[in-house]
Design a protein that fits this description.
The structure is a homotetramer.
Chain A lengths: L6 H28 L4 H10 L4 E2 L22 H15 L4 E3 L1 E2 L7 H10 L3 E2 L2 E3 L22 H21 L3 E4 L4 E2 L7 H17 L6 E5 L9 E2 L4 H11 L3 E6 L9 H10 L3 E6 L16 H17 L7 E4 L8 H20 L3 H10 L2 H13 L3 H10 L6 H8 L1 H8 L12
Parallel strand pairs in A: 1-2, 2-4, 3-5, 5-6, 6-8, 8-10, 10-11, 11-12
Antiparallel strand pairs in A: 7-9
Helix pairs in contact in A: 1-13, 1-14, 2-10, 2-13, 3-10, 3-14, 5-6, 8-9, 9-10, 10-12, 11-12
């Protein structure tokens, strides 16, 4: 196993924090015990939990206005895996990486798999990209991909998805995630109905190539890059797709892809109830698809999503097996730090949701005691579960304080000297 | 036939406007002819088109802060029918009335039907009310109706819907519209999943009682009166309901019941495509469920909805038979004037959508000529079709200028003297 | 001093919880001490903090669709004060009551003041109501009050505000809060400019009557009850008003009165910077002016507002003296329970904001260390400060667990037997 | 004068359409005459009206996901001016161009001015860019420009604005537009107050360098590229800036820069009333800053903005002299076609607003006749003013049908052969 951060740094950082952690963990354990909760049981669940990291997340993101790259940006998928290795080593919460094709396309898949294995990483869902044109591509996606009015363009987009499945098979992935930018910028530009018919036709061709033990996740998004309509605009359309395609098709929920004010946790509940929740792209947002760090804007909303997930887990809801992935754009932070922090936020929401007194909650719901039902959730949310998360990390070989340990390690400066800088990109579009 | 507005007033008003109308109609006909359109064919379609008026719409609406009644408010459903009679007499675009039970409940249904017939009115969908408590009601709907945790309350709500069907059968209605206020104000107050299971159970009992030639319309709404979640929050959930219930169940779209920025015309297209569009509650809004006069805030959005409807009509889409109804709250206008104006706005959007050059549009869509596709819709929308609407009214016995004719008739002053005023109501809630 | 809840119940409830509280308080104190924070200093600040209760909040609220009253609703302002007395007795965080005139108008102001004093309550800002018509009122506010096109109506509205000042003077209030429903439902209905000119004229007349030691708070709101435009629609207009009126005029921020996604804490910062922050109407919301319990939907947002307030307090920002008031509608809970819980949420946000390491935060800001700046706020927010709040209550004579103690006291059942029920109201408006 | 489109093509295209135009113009004139309106007077006002074209608008825009360039994209500002020359030649509604520095920076300003003059173009406001890093720039704007915590970076940003003024002076511009991307992505990242203090300091330095006959326009935007807060987030802050800077400082309104549902025409009215409306960036949007073609999504909203402008023009409001500019991103259309169409949409809204019967409107407002006030605006909006616009173009030497004429000219194919293609850019950012 290749350790990206030296064990001596990690151990030293942990050693200085371990006594305080033990004290806090015991103190919290005592208080939880008073509420009838076994802290070790929670810790074990948290330790077993993981969220996938997107390969593209370790590079600096940007906007249509500009991109401001940081030092030591990864040059290729091998660099990216190393950065992902850091995240997993310190947080022990991100055991898999999700690739984006063609961005992460390489000739030697065996080498890629070996690299991942050496870093203790596996591969999560494959992501296909038909929202931008790759160099030398025969047909442009300017006016759509899987829904294009031109059959050859649609076929090219279908083939690309089939390629992604093949790559995924070689790497041990078990799922394909399809998000497309197809849509329209003006009323009339596209026929809603015909475009969706074409979409379903294309996706049926992709679905037909899906191995038996794979799942396909389709992802809805209200707008951007299309600014009047998008083909898979909301969970309603997403559900129709999963229904039309068949039992291996599921809906992916990206927390930032909804209209303002929408109750996302309710959508999650509906998809669970109708056995079509595929999983998540976690992030946070205040305005649109801001792709900010998970839990940074509205942590209670994240908790409420996990409250539904733990509810389903507790009920052993039929067909419930969501995939969890981060999907963020790191424009002003070190991507490694943001991804570590976000993975911990996801774990935190999970831990808090595990603390909900579900028997009491159900009784309050039955009695229409709205105030106490609300307080039951708030009480779980207010519990500072950091000692649980930190202890889970420590016992799994990770860092009590991942960001501090990472900074102490000097990793960023090291890769900055090894990886040549590239120009900004992304600018000039207004 | 009882004419609520005297024929002499109507004739005099029309006479003064007829020469100009003829001139404008001919001039427009000539210009449309240059675009290959037969103005009389459009006029005939418009003349055949009708939108239902809600019985509750002829009273002054209000907010939780206050209600400011106007003079001559209807005291009962017979008064309301008379006001609806005025609207239909002058616009010839509102041949049916939609009742709300228990608000419009009467002992003598035969008398009610005769009254309507005498006014040239029929009955559209029945609306059940389980969002407020009627005097003497055994179980309160404070915490829900069809989804209540208490079985007896759910049963009461189901029975009320069965009553509505019975009343409707006696009156010649062929549809039941179900909108409920059920939901929650706080996270945790209600289990999304269990509440929806109860909803489906209740609705299945209602559905079972539906006559073979009836349809049931369920209506989604994002929020209000519940402010954290509503059980039928969006078209996705609404579609699931229609699917679970069966072939007589359809989704009703109220234009004001969506999240900000949502592309409503696209939802309409999806429901048509999947054969579950039941119909509309027309109104307009800028913020929430403002229930403003149709077309008063964003007339282009209304046109785009009708563009989808005419597209489906032209394609003879399978199962396409939407019901059209106004649903507005008239807080600062004379409700009769607002309903006449709104009925004309609906007809206007229909007429404009009929003018779209669909062959050209389809070609532009096929060629991804976004600009010309957009301009094709805009060209139809920009056409001032008022002469077509006015001519259709005139030839059907209505008024060229309904509002002016209504004002000239003195109807409001007359009923103000006949109908005693009641106190405001609605206030005191902040 | 009249104790609404018997001391024996209170003491018994506290006694059962005191040992655990002491343990939790000490444990938290130790952890905070490790972060360089003196828990007693925080507790003392929290104990000194108070938020006003609105007199109208102790009645059950409703929507335009319905109101579902609970048992024992207050019949008059004396009843309301008693309920407010319960809230203050148990939480020790709500020392004042804010009246609404004419709802709370009484002949004998001396008796009112004595009643309040006997309950340990003072009077916060006076609220004038010109958004609904009082019985027998000469001019209707249907089309506006302070901005009405009719001078006599404007004068009446001005006079009403002058009355409010007089009543407030008699009761010891020091501020007038003006929120009006004036606006328009349709484009064109009102001239934005002329309406605002009339508003300023009217308010100048009110301002002229303001005692020297009073302040006037104007409150902006984006929409409702007007659904196209409101005269004081946002903080920009609100600021212009405060600037035009003079040094005793300030802007009031109701957390639920903004457009979707608006950054409210930033508005708070701007008003502080320009010395025009008057204070708050606290509540929470997911969609519009939902008036839900404070902190029930997005507790982090509430914390971020308090982060600005504590920042200003720490900097001793010039002219910084905001008034704090709850303003909520309790539709599905016992209003007393909601107000107690909400007062505690406000205190909680204050306590959390006091924990922010401001020196570290400023350094991170200076260095553009976005991640650590964000984490600095999150660390404070994540701290469970309940032991601090509970200890502050206990030491001030309140309840460790106000809701449980209130339920144990049987207060609601007692007043239900003493106060006759009234009919629902609020319904029938759709 | 260099004609970019050959006169023979233009004349031929016009000749084929002139008879029908004359007929339509006369027919409309007759109808308007019946409403007391002189069509020639309207036409003359429309002919005198112009909107500036942004130099960056003639290139294909994109999103953070991808940019799909079209054929014949301009390589430099001289190419761009030629494209702008086409737009002005055919529409006669875009006499000036607005530059963006450093994008349009050239060594030889005299040559640039001569080029513009030869095309019949002048220069509108200068736009400074401190939201992206130019190659070789000493200090990065990653964490801000005019508000950066580092004084040297702020100074660099100020200097850049001073450069823009110098360039503008050489070119005959009379205004500087300042929009910055400064803000924060996370709560805590930036101090709202200190950042705004730094902003004001920087802008005061820019203001000090402003020639006496210049104006400076500051532009607010709610979000993007910053996703938690922006320094000039709304018109309230924008107004404070204009007030702090002085009499040459004004607020610029970009129609796409507001929160959902915000009443933009009301903001326009407030800024006019307080003498701080600087002008507009016109475009349209459904979700965020979509930068779609003006009038393509909500044409009535555009009309309502112009209704305020014409109202102010009619009243001869003090200090009213707004600058008009298009600011759009053309991702799926030929930019020249979109800009021509958009310029015509702006003229259309102006023409429609000129048709409003302002005397009647004022009377309805005075009488609170909301319905007729609304109908008065709708009647003007519904008038198809295309014959007026086309006649104004024809008489000024432009095209009756600019898009058709442009297509007939083969201009795009010609420049495609002259201007080498460049790679996509903009992609790879997710």
């Amino acid at each position: 196993m290749t350790e990206m951060i030296s064990t001596s740094v990690l151990n030293a950082e942990n050693a200085s924090r371990e006594p305080a952690l033990k004290r806090d963990y015991d103190s919290l354990g005592e208080r939880l015990s008073g509420r009838g909760i076994d802290i070790d049981a929670i810790k074990n669940k948290v330790a077993a939990y993981g969220v996938a990291v997107p390969s593209w997340g370790v590079g600096t993101g940007g906007t249509r206005f500009a991109r401001f790259p940081g030092p030591g940006e990864p040059r290729n998928i091998f660099n990216k895996l190393e950065d992902c290795g850091v995240i997993q080593q310190l947080t022990r919460a991100t055991p898999t990486v999700s690739l984006h094709i063609p961005w992460d396309k390489v000739a030697d898949l065996r080498a890629l798999k070996e690299k991942a294995t050496s870093l203790g990483l596996g591969f999560d869902a494959m992501n296909s990209n038909t929202f931008s044109d790759a160099p030398g591509q025969a047909h442009s996606y300017k006016f759509g991909s899987l829904t294009h009015t031109d059959a050859a363009t649609r076929r090219q987009a279908v083939e690309h998805n089939l390629d992604c499945i093949e790559i995924g098979k070689a790497l041990g992935s078990k799922a394909l995630t399809v998000w497309i930018g197809d849509g329209s910028n003006f009323p009339g530009q596209s026929s809603f109905t015909r475009a969706f018919e074409r979409y379903l036709d294309s996706m049926k061709a992709v679905y037909a190539a899906l191995p038996d033990d794979w799942r396909v996740f389709t992802e809805h998004k209200m707008y951007e890059p299309a600014f009047y309509s998008t083909v898979v605009q909301d969970w309603g359309t997403n559900y129709l797709i999963a229904q039309e395609l068949g039992p291996k098709a599921f809906c992916l929920v990206d927390l930032g892809h909804h209209a303002p004010n929408v109750n996302i946790e309710m959508i999650v509940a509906r998809l669970i109830q109708f056995k079509k929740l595929g999983g998540f792209h976690f992030n946070d947002s205040k305005y649109g698809d801001d792709d900010l760090d998970t839990g940074s804007i509205d942590p209670y909303r994240l908790f409420l999503v996990f409250n539904e997930l733990v509810d389903a887990e507790t009920r052993a809801a039929e067909g419930f097996k969501p995939a969890h992935m981060l999907d963020q754009s790191h424009n002003v932070t070190d991507p490694i730090e943001s991804l570590m922090t976000s993975a911990m936020e996801v774990s935190r929401a999970y831990a808090q949701a595990l603390l909900v007194d579900r028997r009491a909650l159900e009784a309050y719901q039955q009695d229409n005691d709205a105030l106490m039902a609300s307080e039951t959730l708030k009480a779980a949310f207010r519990t500072d579960v950091e000692p649980i998360l930190a202890m889970a990390r420590l016992e799994s070989g990770g860092a009590i304080a991942p960001v501090a340990t990472y900074r102490a390690s000097g990793y960023r400066a090291r890769v900055a000297s090894e990886r040549p800088a590239v120009s900004g990109g992304g600018g000039g579009i207004v």
